[in-house]
Amino acid sequence: MKIDQIKAFIAVVETGSFRSAAEAIHKTQPSVSAAIKALESQYDITLFDRNSYRPGLTAEGHAFFRQCKKLMSQVTQLDSLGHDLAKGVATPPLHLCLSQMSLDQNCIERVKAFQQHNADVDIDITTDHLYGLQDKLAKGKCDISIGPRYGLDDRHSFLELYKMEMITVMSSSLLEQLNLTTNKVKQTSLQSIPQLLVINTASDGSSHGHRHVLTTGKRWYVNDFQVKKSLLLNGMGWARMPKHMILAELENGQLVPIEVDNFISRNHVPIYMVRLRQQTHRFQVNLFWEMMRSFTSR
Fold first, then answer.
1. Neighbours of 93 (CB within 10 A)
2. How far apart are CA 236 and CA 90, in angstroms?
3. Distance (Å, rounded) from C-alpha 45 to C-alpha 159?
4. pLDDT tens track for 156-176
5. In degrees, to the nearest 5, what angle opens at C-alpha 168 toward C-alphas 162 and 170?
6. Cα-Cα-Cα-Cα dihedral of 102, 233, 236, 131, to 10°?
7. d(C-alpha 134, C-alpha 151), whole Å
8. Residue 156 near residue 276 (C-beta atoms within 8 A)
9. Has this prediction a pTM greater than 0.90?
10. Are 208 and 200 in contact (CB under 8 A)?
11. Considering only CA atoms, which of 137, 175, 184, 183 is closest in space to residue 156?
């Protein structure tokens, strides 16, 4: 298999004919036909159904085409990298945007493993929340985001990495003030107490973006989870929190899990790795993506 054969094959698929493909890649039509036949002969498969007016892909052809497109994307990146290195152009860092709530040991260990195996790749890490992660992707401010499934659609390629536990808590002192003898709480008991929420960081700000919010009652918005945690510890509200952020406070009793009626007080949230689908990604981006995928498949 040769790169020129792959280019000829892709050109036939994308232009719809052998003649158009030859013109597109500046080859003769017989040479394009020969390239396709060489591929079919090498793997003993039929790539095109030649019984119709225009060549249509067979089932094997469709599968082969998808992988050829991926291969050519990587070849383009490698070629670009080689030219940049020859010119002494500095390789840009890998830009990651991580959800604040997903920064548990699972996430950190994955990024650390990548850094240890690829010490020559510089990494630029920012954090964001809710729809802000995909906002950064859309604006080209990061290469890959890692976080919950907010704002994902057919523009994105995404892969579930792991699940993170969320629980609803308040301080033990606030629980005492409510004169509750159990951690089961009615919504009416919380209407005068602020539900603490981290603000949606998407630039349009069209929606708060939260999925688990009481329809009645006070709401206070903060910039990050550390502020949210501080307010919780001081008895200034109640909130859903990533369990990994408050393990010590749960253990020493400063924060107490509560079960609010008709409310999702506890659940496991899938954490996804996301990148834009219709985009040629740099070598470092594909390297990170494939390594994260290998962790997930174990």
1. 13
2. 49
3. 31
4. 889 999 999 999 999 999 988
5. 140
6. -10
7. 6
8. yes
9. no
10. yes
11. 137
The amino acid at residue 252 is N
Encoding tokens for residue 19? 């003649």
Own/partner pairs for 261-264, CB < 8 Å, 24+ apart? 261/184, 261/185, 261/186, 261/187, 262/187, 263/168, 263/187, 263/212, 263/214, 264/212
Compute the distance between CA of residue 170 and CA of residue 242 in angstroms, rounded to an integer: 13
Per-residue pLDDT tens digits for 216-229: 778 999 988 999 99
In this structure, how many other beta carbons lie within 10 angstroms of the beta carbon of residue 108? 12
CA distance 255 to 203: 33
Burial class (CB in 10 A: 0-12, 13-18, 19+), 146: buried
Question: Cα(10)–Cα(20) distance, rounded to whole angstroms?
Answer: 12
pLDDT in tens, 29-80: 999 999 999 999 998 999 988 777 778 889 898 899 888 887 887 777 677 6
Structure tokens at 136: 């950064």
Mind giving me the DSSP string for 245-276? GSHHHHHTTSEEE-EETTS--EEEEEEEEEEE
Which residues are within 8 A (CB) of 158 and not within 5 positions of it... i.e. 6 or more apart?
A: 149, 152, 272, 273, 274, 275
Is residue 155 classed as helix, strand or coil in its secondary structure? coil
Cβ neighbors of 80 (< 8 A, separation 6 or more) are 282
Which residues share a beta bridge with 257?
Answer: 169
What is the rounded CA–CA span in Å between residue 24 and residue 36? 15
Beta bridge partners of 276: 156
Q: Which helix (H) or strand (E) holds 37?
A: helix 29-43
User: Cα separation of 37 and 294, whole Å?
Assistant: 35
**Token pair of 62 as six digits:** 């469709």
Give me the amino acid identity at 30. P
Distance CA 161, CA 90 (A): 31
